Amino acid sequence: MSKPIRVLVAKPGLDGHDRGAKMIARALRDAGMEVIYTGLRQTPEQIVAAAIQEDVDVIGMSILSGAHNHLFPKIIKLLKEQNAEDILVIGGGVIPEDDIPALLEGGIAAIFTPGTPTTDTVKFIKENVK
Amino acid sequence: MELIERMLNGDKRACARLISIVENNAKESEEVIRKIYKHTGNAHIIGITGPPGAGKSTLTDKLVKLLRKQDKTVGIIAVDPTSPYTGGAILGDRIRMNDHALDPGVFIRSMGTRGYLGGLAKATRNAMKILDAFGCDYIIIETVGVGQSEVDIVKAADTVVMVMVPGLGDDIQSIKAGIMEIGDIFAVNKSDLFGAQRTATEINMMLDLDQNMGRRPPVVMVTASKNENIDKLYHEIEKQYSYMKVEGILEERRKLNLKRELVELVEEELRKVVLRESDNNGEIENASNKLLNKETDPFTERDLLLKKII
Ligand SMILES: Nc1nc2c(ncn2[C@@H]2O[C@H](COP(=O)(O)OP(=O)(O)OP(=O)(O)O)[C@@H](O)[C@H]2O)c(=O)[nH]1
Ligand SMILES: [Mg+2]
Predict the structure, then answer these.
(1) How far apart are CA A69 and CA B163, in angstroms?
(2) How many other CB atoms are found less than 10 A from the CB of residue B249?
């Protein structure tokens, strides 16, 4: 039995829809991964708690609200507090180019902006999960 | 194993890691279960089953809320189907249980069936043992949405709650044959919808017809999404559990399930040994050729293969 990669997909923040998150969830499933889908409006604390109980390899977050500069660092900080910084954190959504370098610097493994083919995300995950 | 120590001391991350081990690694899994087995047997194991979309996750969420009010700790294993084509899965039961994510007394784990067909995953039983050793007072197993034959939950749980909904129509008849028998308690969910009373009546009639049952399962009408009558369901769950305990049925049932588990383990290992041995020597291949040419018959070959190994 080969171990499937487990990914938690969340859409934190208070705004709108989760179309993007659902799309990526399906793409990852079709690539043979187990996707734990947690839906809308999760707080960073809830996301990290779920990631730990689910023992995921990756947390994927879709953020549309412009709160990325707050939410991503918060997740990284919480993971560190739990000694779980081995979990890969990736993000997608509407994130200005200018903000990306700082996020990557802060421990986010990759940011996929709108229009990136889902195959890129799949490939990145497969290459970066040990 | 350091992980086991940590898990026994209440470390959730260690508990989660151990569940991954029993899902992914057969050899290590054995080691884990050998070490923790003596710590199991204390949790009340509740199976929540029923057709897809019946409200199993929503109901689980509300049951957990009620159990937490009484300071009981709860472990949840929520099983969803794995795609047979890609091996991937979307595990979405958790969406309905997000309120408990931060509660230290609740542990929620989603699990893909990974090719297993009985409504649970192969690793579910071992994951239950880990949550049991972890100290959960209750363990709730949500099965995949069941159709006709997904009845493995009955081999794993102390109490099986069968969730039904109005509007199944003739389906009640078709479900009956396969899975009605396994319910200890029937919950008619979505009682806010038209036809719920009728569904309850139909189930009651069906249960009244069934003669050779032990305890006649109660039927409870609930509305999980509005948190209505969950206390009544809980009351029935407790009643059934103490009835089983007093009558010695609980012990009997657990023993029967352990027996089934053991037999399955033996079968599995035997199969592996036989196939490994005979595959290595090309014997199965040779026998198949002989069968094709009608030089022998399947039963003679079976006996020959078995004789060589056992
Ligand atoms: N009207 C009504 N809807 C409900 C009730 N309980 C749950 N639902 C809704 O039914 C839908 C399915 O609920 P879930 O709890 O996900 O059902 P499930 O049985 O876990 O589904 P699967 O795990 O996919 O088989 C959701 O949209 C719920 O909001 C209820 O009491 N009344
Ligand atoms: Mg569900």
Answers:
(1) 44
(2) 15
As a three-state string, the secondary structure of B55-96 is CHHHHHHHHHHHHHHCCCCEEEEEEECCCCCCCCEEECHHHH
Residue of B26, B95, B108 with shortest CB distance to A37: B95
Confidence of residue B245 (pLDDT cuts 50, 70, 90): very high
Domains of chain A from N-terminus onward: 6-128 (3.40.50.280)
- The average confidence (pLDDT) of chain B is 91
- A68 dihedral zone (left: phi>0; alpha: psi -120 to 50; beta): alpha
Report how far apart, in Å, the C-alpha atoms of A6 and of each of A59, A81, B7, B88, B226 are: 9, 21, 21, 9, 32
**Model pLDDT for residues A99-129, shown as the tens digit of each residue:** 999 999 999 999 998 888 999 999 999 999 9
A32, A37, A53 ranked by CB distance to B90: nearest? A37
- Structure tokens, A75: 């997740």
Give residue B62's pLDDT: 98
For chain B, list the domains and their CATH numbers: 39-247 (3.40.50.300), 260-309 (no CATH)
Tell me the whole-structure pTM to 2 decimals: 0.93
Check whether B147 has a pLDDT greater than 80: no
Give yes or no for residue B230 having a pLDDT over 60. yes
Nearest chain A alpha carbon to B115? A1
Which comes out higher in pLDDT, residue A65 or B223? B223
- Ligand 1, closest atom to CA B52? 25
Q: Please, which residues have CB within 8 angstroms of residue A107's CB and are 6 or more apart in sequence?
A: A73, A76, A85, A89
**Per-residue pLDDT averaged across B31-43, rounded?**
96
Burial of B272 (0-12, 13-18, 19+ CB in 10 A): exposed
